[in-house]
Amino acid sequence: MADVPKGNPRVGRGNFFAVDWRCVEDATRQGEGVNPALAYLTLARHTSRNHQSTTASATAICGKLGLSRGRAENALRTLQNVGLISVPQRGTFRRLTPWAGLKAEREKLTDRQREIVRRVLSRRNPIVSSADPDYQVAYGLKQRGILQLADGKPGKSRFQITAPDLVWLPNTLVDGFTNGDGPLARLRQAQNPEAIRLLIDCYRHANLAEDSGLPWGLLRRKYRRAVADHHGVNRR
């Protein structure tokens, strides 16, 4: 791993990037699975501070993952076709679709539901109480993971767009440590989507840097001792 800044990595030396783990898992289930997911991580590595805007393209994916140009472009098309990324704009500029937006697009919301999502996003006419005619519909969108409850101070909106669930990954996961193939390029060779999900889970549930790997508590299992046999002792 790269040198890890102490404290909050967001205010460290910029050695980390953030990505919504749910989007990565979704990418492992699309197309070839492995290539789209690793391409998505490569795009996320090059996002700006909003964790959504990226100018990375097939060239970056080829360089970081060792993919041919055709496979890199196919991975981008796969991600685009399922809504995980936008179509390119102004050259290679793209946006990574937030998880809430992805769910809203895939679940084919009604016109009224879409209008309520826009209402929540605009913040100009917030839903402040259960007496609002749109409250129950908004609550249904909350049940579907598109909206979430907000800290309901009097007069403030009761709902907000579901926040991303970010996991912070070291840049070296994509870039590598020295010249040659990086960790993601090696992971690609295994061609196992489960390995990608396991990798993300390791970073989600553990502080790999401070624990020097997975903490023992994650691997520890309770067991009961039992006598299997006696040897070299008198039995009574």
Can you tell me about this structure?
Mean pLDDT is 84; it is low at 1-13. The strands form three sheets. A two-stranded antiparallel sheet has the order 1-6. It has a two-stranded antiparallel ribbon with strand order 2-3. Strands 4-5 form a two-stranded antiparallel sheet. The chain has helices spanning 21-27, 34-45, 58-65, 69-81, 99-106, 111-122, 135-143, 172-175, 183-190, 193-205, 216-219, and strands at 16-20, 53-54, 94-95, 147-149, 159-161, 166-170. By secondary structure, the protein is mainly alpha-helical. It has eleven helices and six strands.
Helix and strand layout, with pairings?
Elements: E1 16-20, H1 21-27, H2 34-45, E2 53-54, H3 58-65, H4 69-81, E3 94-95, H5 99-106, H6 111-122, H7 135-143, E4 147-149, E5 159-161, E6 166-170, H8 172-175, H9 183-190, H10 193-205, H11 216-219
Antiparallel strand pairs: 1-6, 2-3, 4-5
Helix pairs in contact: 1-2, 2-3, 2-4, 3-4
Question: In short, what is this structure?
Answer:
With 236 residues, the chain is mainly alpha-helical. It has eleven helices and six strands. It is globular.
Please describe the structure with a list of short key phrases separated by commas or semicolons.
236 residues, mainly alpha, two-stranded antiparallel sheet, 11 helices, 6 strands, 42% helix, globular
- CA radius of gyration is 23 Å
Order of helices and strands: EHHEHHEHHHEEEHHHH
Distance between the termini: 57 Å
**Biggest sheet character:** 2 strands, antiparallel
- Using the alpha-carbon principal axes, give the shape: globular
Quote the beta fraction: 5-15%
Helical content class: 40-55%
Q: Low-confidence stretches at least 5 residues in length (pLDDT < 50)?
A: 1-13
User: What structural class do the secondary elements suggest?
Assistant: mainly alpha
Widest β-sheet, arrangement of strands: 1-6
Strand segment tally: 6
Number of helices: 11
